[in-house]
Amino acid sequence: MKAYQQLDSIYKVYVPGRVLTVLGGPEANIFVSRKGINCFSTRIIYTDIAKELGVSLIAELDGEEHRRYRKIIEQFLSTNKVEQYIKTMALVILNLSNNWQLGQRWQVQVDDLIQKLTFVQLGLSFLRGQKCYGRTTLDYTILIKGLLYFKCVCPS
């Protein structure tokens, strides 16, 4: 905000390895809402992050493919949708950690644990309480592909 007030709505930021151009303020919002879809790509920024993490991210998609995945995800992860599944998600964590003992020392594969939690929570949230009326096999197939796209596959 300080940079926007001092430098105007367009300015450059120097970070290690690159220079970023920043658009700020109401002018930027107007420009992005009208023309941004044709001018910007998040792929440039997120491809390196995805490569480093060894995963695929929706943020590195552009255009129609990005909109399609967002539309699918928003059906299930909007605030009002997620609220109804908080209890289920908490139960998944409690069930997964049920055998852990206080003071117990063991090595946790954090990546595998987070992937398993994410997959189980999203899967249960999707399946529980979702009426099948109006949903097609394609909807379910796209959701499963989306989950696999994020590499949220439970380790065996």
What does it look like?
With 156 residues, this protein is mainly α. The chain has a domain at 63-149. It is built from eight helices and two strands. It has a two-stranded antiparallel ribbon. Helix 6 packs across helix 7 (110-127). The radius of gyration is 20 Å and the shape is extended. Residues 150-156 have low confidence and may be disordered. GO terms for molecular function: heme binding; iron ion binding; monooxygenase activity; oxidoreductase activity, acting on paired donors, with incorporation or reduction of molecular oxygen. InterPro entries: Cyt_P450_sf. This is Cytochrome P450. It comes from Nostoc commune NIES-4072.
List the helices and strands and how they pair.
Blueprint: H1 2-7, E1 10-15, E2 18-23, H2 25-39, H3 43-53, H4 63-77, H5 79-83, H6 86-96, H7 110-127, H8 137-149
Antiparallel strand pairs: 1-2
Radius of gyration: 20 Å
Q: Which regions are unreliable across 5 or more consecutive residues at pLDDT < 50?
A: 150-156
Query: Kindly state the mean pLDDT as a whole number?
Result: 71
Q: Helicity level, as a percent range?
A: 55-70%
Distance between the termini: 48 Å
Beta-strand content bin: 5-15%
**Oligomeric state of this protein:** single chain
The count of helical stretches stands at: 8
Largest sheet: 2 strands, antiparallel
Shape: extended
- Note the run of SSEs as H and E: HEEHHHHHHH
Going across the biggest sheet, name each strand in turn.
Answer: 1-2
Instruction: Give the helix/strand class.
Output: mainly alpha
